[in-house]
Amino acid sequence: KAGVTQTPRYLIKTRGQQVTLSCSPISGHRSVSWYQQTPGQGLQFLFEYFSETQRNKGNFPGRFSGRQFSNSRSEMNVSTLELGDSALYLCASSGGPYYEQYFGPGTRLTVT
Amino acid sequence: GENVEQHPSTLSVQEGDSAVIKCTYSDSASNYFPWYKQELGKGPQLIIDIRSNVGEKKDQRIAVTLNKTAKHFSLHITETQPEDSAVYFCAASGDNDMRFGAGTRLTVKP
To answer: Does pLDDT of A98 surpass 70?
Structure first.
């Protein structure tokens, strides 16, 4: 099976812009979770989607949003980018009974 | 919600020695405890996991132990090799909610 794929791998944006990141989960997996990883804050949970519905949400401002499509692919959007949004954004897919999560390679977002 | 603490934050060992990383969690409802290895420029990779109905699990040079009463679990790597150098994360999961420790940077010196 192919692993989790994320596009793009690298992105440079300017403060105030918006960005959309994409994640394709492992075939058959219906849950997609998004995380932000920074050196100072570690891995922080953004939100989880299951069957096109947001099932869990972390403690991030409303500028961070996401959605999931009927084929389980997911996108996350960040509006009005701030310098502090520079991070590695990781997507993880899950399909097993014990919530095993498998991560993609991440999208490195740099906000200038 | 769940809070996961991980120690140490950095660990340096000589090749061939053992390495131990410890985590504690707060939510007694947590029942799934995975460990991830993250190499530079890559996403975290699931290396071993343990469920709450098991006290210990081993996979070649890697083992994980779980003490549900004390709410702590540990990763043990034996006969360490330079390629084991990476950042290791523990996590605890209950009801559709996974929380991660802050990570341990393991360096194995040849």
So the answer is: no
**C-alpha separations of B15 from A110, B20, B47, B85, B89 in Å:** 36, 14, 20, 10, 21
Contacts of B36 in chain A (CB under 8 A): 103
Please give the pLDDT value at position B18. Answer: 98
d(C-alpha B72, C-alpha B4), whole Å: 9
Read off the pLDDT of residues A58-91 as tens digits, 9 standing for 90 and up: 889 999 999 999 999 999 999 999 999 999 999 9
CA–CA separation, B59 vs A35, rounded Å? Answer: 27
The Cα of B108 is separated from the nearest Cα of chain A by a number of Å equal to 21
Taking an 8 Å cut-off on Cβ atoms, the answer to whether A100 and B44 are in contact is: no
Closest by Cβ to A105, choosing from B42, B46, B100:
B42
Q: Do B89 and A43 touch (CB under 8 A)?
A: yes
Over residues A87-107, the mean pLDDT reads: 89
